Amino acid sequence: MGFFDSEVVQQEAKKLFEDYQSLIQLGSEYGKFDREGKKIFIQQMEALMERYRIFMKRFELSEDFMAQMTIQQLKTQLGQFGMTPQQMFEQMNMTLERMKSEIER
């Protein structure tokens, strides 16, 4: 069975995408959140990023051709911006850390 044929993989991909879309939509109101709301939003983004990191690691570890192609496509796309997947995650974490420090002021 191919990597993308797995029901678990399909469900997790769908859930990740839906959760990401919801958080991005919610994030458009971030400036209106109170302090606790901002903390919850950041926590949810951190949890989503960790789920995404694990999901991408599954791709990297898979020997499935399509999974490897997906990783290569991501690397190519990020490479156009001078980034690696690791740098992408680091940048996201730095952004969330900066958001946390702004709340504490």
Describe this protein's structure.
This is DUF1825 domain-containing protein. InterPro entries: DUF1825. It comes from Stanieria cyanosphaera (strain ATCC 29371 / PCC 7437). The protein has 105 residues and is mainly alpha-helical. The chain has one domain. The protein has four helices and no strands. Helix 1 runs antiparallel to helix 2 (35-61) and helix 2 packs antiparallel against helix 4 (85-104).
The geometry reads as: globular
**Main sheet summary:** none
Given as residue ranges, the uncertain stretches (5+ residues, pLDDT < 50) are none
Element order: H for helix, E for strand: HHHH
> What is the helical fraction, as a range of percent?
over 70%
| Strands, total number | 0
* Terminal-residue CA separation: 52 Å
Secondary-structure-derived class:
mainly alpha
- Total DSSP helices: 4
Number of domains as seen in the coordinates:
1
- What is the beta-strand fraction? under 5%
How many whole angstroms does the radius of gyration measure?
A: 16 Å
